[in-house]
Amino acid sequence: MRITIFVGRADLCGGQRVIHIYAQKLTERGHQVLVIARPPRKATLRETLRWKLLKKPVPASAQPSESYFDKDKYPRDYEFKFLPEHRPATAADVPDADVVIATWWETAEWVDLFPARKGAKVYFLQHFETFAGPEHQVEATWRLPMHKVCVAQWLVDLAREKFNDPTAELVSNAVDLEQFTAPPRGKQPIPTVGVMYSWVDFKGCDISFKAYEIAKQKVPDLKMVSIGAVDPHPSLPLPDGIEFRFRPPQSEIKNYYGKCDAWLFGSRSEGFGLPILESMSCRTPVIATPAGAAPELVGEGGGILVPMEDPQAMADAILKVVAMRQDEWKSMSDKAFDTAQRHNWDVATDEFEAALKRATKRTDMKVAG
């Protein structure tokens, strides 16, 4: 198949990594894949001054970023290009294809206007993106007549129940079982928890930090490690004494997961939550809010689910893990690892590829009808 994939922004967020993986694996299977991204917009002087005055990070849409599409750092065999400027894509920007995939609410608006020769229209849903766009516009894209592929069950349920689309289907995200791995082990000599740093509010990093500080009052030697694709910002400072690493090499990320007794996932909202599977694949249980795919993944026994917006409950879960006997912790670690093993990218690509083929058949049937 000839496949065109649109991304709203090229960066290092988990959703872009998923797109990169699928683009590469589909190319390895003989498909012709083109990924197109919109470049960052230019911030006005007034915006720049206002952001500095308020001590807030520059919005992602207005700053360049390293991305998973940088061929020198993340090898790929598929084609990638930027639009010539920060604007909506038009049919003139893309070749004729068998499938064209929108991966963000704005890109869905673009793809909706393309003629049929640009390909069967697929909406790859990795979140309900009202956090980043006007609610009525985001919701309108969910009503578009596109074949919807969702990364988590809650998104499938949303498409079917709120937007009356019975054809929406689930293709769960996966984990690279070779990149994220660790040998069987016991608890750490010094109790340690970890977290993915992000100043984006819905990621809930502040909840995890508060939980750590509460738990540390009862376990003074409790440690925390953190990694992130952004530097810590004054709007969300690091707690005293934690170990932080900015953008560690991909080959080293497993070491941070692997040095923890539990990984904290405090999201207020999440499409899927790749760190859940990554940490589980490194035999680290997860303490998570019921966001994204956490209810299904953590619910299988490889961690503890805690209520939303409840640092005390997360702290209590940390203390529970710290107090576990070695055999109790090992049992939870093994369950986490077993859960991750059921989610590999080859199987996910089989399902994603099949979904694209179903989309082309549905489109062919409509044309024939």
TrEMBL record:
GO BP annotations of the record are: lipopolysaccharide biosynthetic process
Coiled-coil spans in chain = none
Pfam families xref list: Glyco_trans_1_4
Keywords associated with the record: Transferase
Which Gene Ontology MF annotations are present? glycosyltransferase activity
Source organism, top-level taxon: Bacteria
Q: PANTHER family, alphabetically?
A: GLYCOSYLTRANSFERASE WBBK-RELATED
Phylogenetic placement of the source organism: Bacteria, Pseudomonadati, Planctomycetota, Phycisphaerae, Tepidisphaerales
Gene3D superfamilies documented for this protein: 3.40.50.11090, Glycogen Phosphorylase B (3.40.50.2000)
Q: What is this protein called?
A: Glycosyltransferase family 4 protein
Query: Does the entry feature the keyword Transferase, yes or no?
Result: yes
Record's keyword annotation contains Transferase? yes
